[in-house]
Amino acid sequence: MEGLYNIVKDFFSHDMDLDDLFDSEAIIWIDWREYDEDVVNYFNDMMDEPIDIKTVSNGKPYGDDIVLKHGNKELQIPYGDEQDRDVTIKYFNDFVKPDYEVRWFAESLGNDTLGFTVLSGAEWAKLDDEFGADTVCYYFEPIDLESNIFNLDMDEVSELLELRENNR
Question: Would the pLDDT of 110 be above 90?
Answer without folding.
Answer: no
